[in-house]
Amino acid sequence: VAGSGPGGLAAGVRRRPLILSRTDDDSWDITEGVGATALSVARARAAESSQSRPLFTDPYAEHFVAAAVAAGWQSSFAGEALADNRFMQAMAAYIAVRTRYFDDFFSAAGLDQVVILAAGLDTRAWRLPWISGTVVYELDQPKVLEFKDEVLREHRAEPAARYVAVPVDLRHDWPQALRDKGFDPARPTAWLAEGLLPYLTAADQDLLFARIHQLSAVGSRVAVEAFSSEFFDPERLAQRRERLRAVADAAAAAGRPVPETEQLWYLESRSDVAGWLKQHGWDVAAISSPALLEHYGRPAPDDADEAVPGSLFVQGCLVSAK
Ligand code: SAM
After folding, report:
1. Whose CA is nearest to atom 14 of ligand 1?
2. CB-facing half-sphere around the CA of 30: CA atoms within 13 A
3. Pair 7, 234: CB distance under 8 Å
4. How many other β-carbons are positioned within 10 Å of the β-carbon of residue 165?
5. pTM for this one?
6. Does the Cβ of 48 fall within 6 Å of ligand 1?
């Protein structure tokens, strides 16, 4: 599906081939493919942190970007070139709101065992006020976590909790890698999957949640940026792509081409995360991305709402014994 291009296009929507640049066992450094998406998120967090009334402050985000640029990363940020473009602003607002939502999740969860899946350049272990005795496990590809470690060390960043890096591919046996590092499945855990699911196949997403469930004691909590099957509907995706194309073309003309993130996604219909969790004994609350942007006072302008991914922010608490 992912490589076949959109079908059933609405009138007026041009057909463009979509090339999937993924393989089953691919791996990456921070500046390559899926790894570079973590840099894009860091860049958005750096921009938010420098606003006059930011939703959060991530003091390390700018250091990651600077280190990657110094190492030769061709920063393709269109932000400077398109500072007053409403689509770009809506996308930046989305990342800011998403970050704040998951910050708030951890503050409210009050659990002292935390697992951040596909952590990328997430700095919550360094910048959030954790309760004493908290351990934060971060899972991601080895080279991504190496880069992060180097930059944070260079800036003498001190974690605010006990920090444990778990370099592993989330398509491999990560539960074993996590246990090997001291994770205790008998203790309630706060789990996070932010900016991850489209980079997994539908089958790998199912396996991910089965494993989270398996490793969760009663009282565990999970927070997820989820995408509905409608989000992956080829016609809707093609329309969104065409609207974003104008932004991409303008950015390219300004010499700052934007990355084609969609080529890194598996565009497959997949399980509904909220429904799956409910079926497995989790109490679930969910909010759509437009509602969340409204909630944090950053609604997308009407003419740029397609820039905001139609995602669902889901939280669950495991209430019944397995
Ligand atoms: N969650 C982080 C955040 O919001 O700042 C990073 C999000 S970034 C868009 C996607 C991250 O997922 C990257 O760091 C990438 O390396 C990681 N990732 C995607 N697929 C993965 C896999 N199969 N195994 C390990 N990490 C993966």
Report:
1. 120
2. 28
3. yes
4. 19
5. 0.91
6. no
pLDDT tens per residue, range 91-139: 889 999 999 999 999 999 999 999 999 999 999 999 999 999 999 999 9
Does the beta carbon of 134 lie inside 6 Å of ligand 1?
no
Q: Three-class SS string for 184-238?
A: CCCCCCEEEECCCHHHCCHHHHHHHHHHHHHCCCCCCEEEEEEECCHHHCHHHHH
Ligand 1 centroid from CA 11, angstroms: 35
Whether ligand 1 lies within 6 angstroms of the CB of 212 is answered as no
Length of the chain: 322
Q: Please give the Cα distance from 244 to 225 (Å, whole number).
A: 21
Question: What does the alpha-carbon distance between residue 268 and residue 3 come to, in Å, rounded to a whole number?
Answer: 10
CB atoms within 10 A of CB 63: 19
Asked whether the beta carbons of 305 and 265 are under 8 A apart, the reply is no
Whose CA is closest to 91, among 268, 245, 298?
A: 298
Q: Is the beta carbon of 198 within 6 A of some atom in ligand 1?
A: no
| C-alpha separations of 33 from 13, 23, 26, 37 in Å | 27, 11, 10, 7
DSSP notation for 64-101: HHHHHHHTT------TTTTTT-HHHHHHHHHHHHHHHH
Q: Does ligand 1 come within 6 angstroms of the Cβ of 145?
A: no
What's the angle, vertex CA 174, arms to CA 144 and CA 131, rounded to 5? 75
Work out the mean pLDDT of the chain and round it to a whole number. 88
List phi, psi (to 5°) of 90: -65, -40
Q: Find the DSSP H helices in the chain.
A: 33-49, 61-70, 86-109, 124-127, 142-154, 174-180, 202-214, 234-253, 273-279, 289-295
